[in-house]
Design brief:
single chain, about 250 residues, Rossmann fold, 6-stranded mixed sheet, disordered C terminus
């Protein structure tokens, strides 16, 4: 993957995703932020949280040579405020389990930023064609991913099942998959045209989602009887017809 990213198409991807990351993470606040995967992308560069790590850096600090299985992260439950997953789900064979582990380590209202390739695009079509040729025995691959491209609709379903709420997102990379810098430079106008006329067919997307946790209030086994003050005795109190006990007042918002 690193060799592919060093080429014209890889630099095209990194340039677009770096600009999206710089924009979306600059105003996200907290204490602990982590980027998992794609070390060539400096996704936390504009973020101002006091503790920011690339996955490998934190693993070395813990005395581990490397972390490749993101289904078991070396972090306590609800300990991170921000996690970046730049193509991380596509590069691992267990993307849903990885996302579930990210949900575990995020604090309530913590955020995850995900980038991925769009299978409903020219790049996605080419990746699918190359995968078909590989099944026939050809040694070819357009984008070197461990898994498969994950569609935005599928990703949204995963996020909703894990209790995430999508805050923002978008598509980009509308140039064809030409591994020539001169041609990519000539086709810059497609970025503006694609963003205006066919945005959902961009070759890559980003998503920012927040972890929502519903508030809960535990009630005791027995309700205490509440006697109305004498000054308010003339005012009727809502009580149960069967128990003649006042209904407990719930905090506002619950």
């Amino acid at each position: 993957m690193r060799e592919w990213l060093a080429g014209p198409l890889g630099q095209y991807v990194l340039g677009w995703e770096q600009s999206q990351m710089d924009r979306v993470v600059s105003d996200l606040f907290g204490f602990h932020a982590l980027q998992l995967g794609l070390d060539d992308l400096q996704g936390l560069k504009t973020n101002r949280m006091p503790h920011r790590w690339l996955g490998m850096d934190h693993a070395r600090a813990l005395g581990v040579d490397f972390v490749t299985d993101f289904r078991a992260l070396p972090f306590a439950e609800q300990s991170l405020d921000l996690v970046l997953l730049p193509h991380t789900l596509e590069m691992h064979l267990h993307p849903h389990e990885t996302l579930r582990e990210v949900e575990r380590v995020l604090v309530p209202e913590g955020r995850v930023v995900i980038t991925g390739f769009n299978p409903m695009s020219l790049w996605g079509f080419k990746q699918g064609r190359e995968a078909f040729y590989r099944r026939l025995g050809a040694n070819t691959e357009f984008v070197p991913l461990a898994g498969e491209m994950i569609g935005l609709g599928r990703l949204k379903d995963w996020l909703r099942l894990l209790g995430f709420e999508i805050e923002q997102g978008g598509f980009g990379l509308y140039k064809p998959a030409l591994n020539s810098q001169s041609w990519l430079d000539k086709l810059t106008w497609l970025e503006f045209a694609g963003d205006r006329w066919w945005p959902i067919f961009g070759s890559a997307y980003y998503v920012v989602a927040v972890k929502r946790v519903k508030g809960m209030r535990v009630l005791g086994a027995k309700w205490k009887k509440i006697n109305a003050p004498a000054a308010l005795s003339a005012r009727p109190t809502a009580v149960s017809q069967h128990t003649h006990q006042a209904r407990p007042a719930h905090p506002r918002g619950q």
